[in-house]
Amino acid sequence: MSRVAIHTRRRFLQAMAATGAAGVSLAASPRSMAAISPNERPVFATIGLRNQGWTITSKSFKYADFAALADVDANVLGENIEKVKERQGTAPEGYADYRKVLERKDIDAVMIATPDHWHTKIAVEAMLAGKDVYCEKPLTLTIDEGKLIEKIVKQTGQVFQVGTMQRTENQQRFLQAIALIREGRIGDIKKVTCGINGATGSPVIPAIDVPEGLDWDFWLGPAPKVAYRALPEMRKGYGGGVPLYTNCHYAWRNWYEYSGGQMNDWGAHHVDIATWALGASDTGPNKITPVSYSLPVDYKDGHPTVADQYNSPTKFEIHANMPGDIPLVITSEGDNGILFEGTKGRFFVNRGKIVGKPVEDLESNPLPEGAVEDVYGGPVAENHTDNFVQAMRNRTQPISDVWSHNRMLETCHLANIAIRLGRELNWDPAKREIVGDEEANSFLSRESRKGYEIDM
C-alpha cells in the first residue's frame, strides 16, 4: 500500500471516529421506484461490505448507481468507498450505522451482505422505510424470522430478492437441470443428494483486543455480548486478509450465534435448487432425520458448552422426507453439487458442470425450445441484479422470492436443530412447527439482545 493510501485511510478512520460517517455526499431528493422511468437508473446502497458485499455491489454497477455504503468496520468501509468511486466516478457516502442509509429518501433499494444474524433486522427496517431489498443468503438465522419477513413484504409491497444467485447465473446449468426433470428425462425422481462440503473445527481461540476501526458491539448487534476472539494465523484465498480462526470476519459462518455453518451456507444454494426441482417450494419436508453428524464441541440441551471454539457441524448426513416420500439427502461427503436420481437415469450438476447420460442425450434429443425459460418464468436475466431491477420496475417479486427461499431454508434450519438436539424431528409444513417437541420448537426463534430489537 502506498503512503498516500495509508494516509487517506488514517484520515478516514479519524473522521469515522469523530462523526460516524465519511465520503462525498450525494444530493437527496424524495422519490419512489414506481415513478422511475424505464430509462432511469435506480439508486442503491450496500450494507455490509466485506467479501460478498463487494461481490454483489460490483455486479450491479451496470444496473444501478450507489449513493451510500455502510459497514461497522471503518477499514472495510473506507476501502469500498474508494473502489466504488473508481468504478462509477462518484464517491458514495459512508456510514458506520446502517440506519442513516434507511433515512435517506433518494435510495430506492438496499443490498444487504452482513452476517446472517443481522439480515432480518435490517431487511424489515429497510422495507418499512420504503426500500426494496436484495439480501444475501441464507436469508434468516431462524425459521420465525422468515415468517416475519414474509409478513412485512406482504404488508409493504416492497420487492425482495434473495441472493441465491444459482437461480440466475452459472451458465444456466441449474435451470437446465430443472428443465431436464420437468421434461421427464430421468423419469420419476427417486432420490436427490446435495453435497455441500464439510467443515473443520478450530483450536481454542483467545479473547483479544478488538482491531482498530471495528465497532465490535455493533457487529454483534442482536447476538449475545461476547469477547472478540482471534488467533494470529491469517486466512488465504477468498475471504483472505483476516484471521483464519476468529468469531468475526469470514469465520462467523462457523458459529451458531451468527449463522448455521455449511448447512445454511452451501445448503442454501443446493437445497434451494433441489427443492425447486422437486416442486416443493411451497411446502418442504415432513420429517428430518440426522443419520450421522459430528460437532466440534460438546453440547448440552442443544447449546455448545464452550464459547472459545467453532461450534457448527463438521460432518453430517441428513435425510429430509420430501413430498411423495422422496428422500433429500444433505451430506458433507462427496462432490459439491446435486445428484438427481430417477427411474430412467441420473445426472449431477454443480457450478462447473452438468454431467450424466441424460445430459449426453441432449445432443440427439435437445430440450424443447423455451424449456429453460419456462423454468425461469421468462427470459433469463443477465445476472441476479438484472432480475432484481426488472422486478423493481415491474413491481413484481423476482426469481428468488422470500416465500420459496424460506420454505427451502426451513429444511436447513431444521437439519441444524436436529443435529443440535441429536434426534429426528417431525415437521408440520402447514403450521410450520415441529410436531410434539416443545424443546425443538424453542429453536424456531431467538431473542435479540436488548437495544438491538427490530424497530417496527
TrEMBL record:
Tell whether Nucleotide-binding is among the UniProt keywords: no
Which terms in the Gene Ontology molecular function aspect does this entry carry? alpha-N-acetylgalactosaminidase activity; nucleotide binding
Q: Which top EC class is given?
A: hydrolase
- Gfo/Idh/MocA-like oxidoreductase bacterial type C-terminal domain spans which residues? 203-453
Where does the record place the Gfo/Idh/MocA-like oxidoreductase N-terminal domain?
79-163
Q: Which UniProt keywords apply?
A: Glycosidase, Hydrolase, Signal
A Pfam family that the UniProt record links to this protein: GFO_IDH_MocA_C2
Q: Which residues does UniProt assign to the signal peptide?
A: 1-27
- State the EC number(s): 3.2.1.49
Listed InterPro entries = Gfo/Idh/MocA-like_OxRdtase_N (IPR000683), Gfo/Idh/MocA_oxidrdct_glycsds (IPR050463), Gfo/Idh/MocA_OxRdtase_bact_C (IPR043906), NAD(P)-bd_dom_sf (IPR036291), TAT_signal (IPR006311)
Q: Which PANTHER family match?
A: BCDNA.GH03377 (PTHR43818), OXIDOREDUCTASE FAMILY PROTEIN (PTHR43818:SF5)
For this entry, the protein name equals: Alpha-N-acetylgalactosaminidase
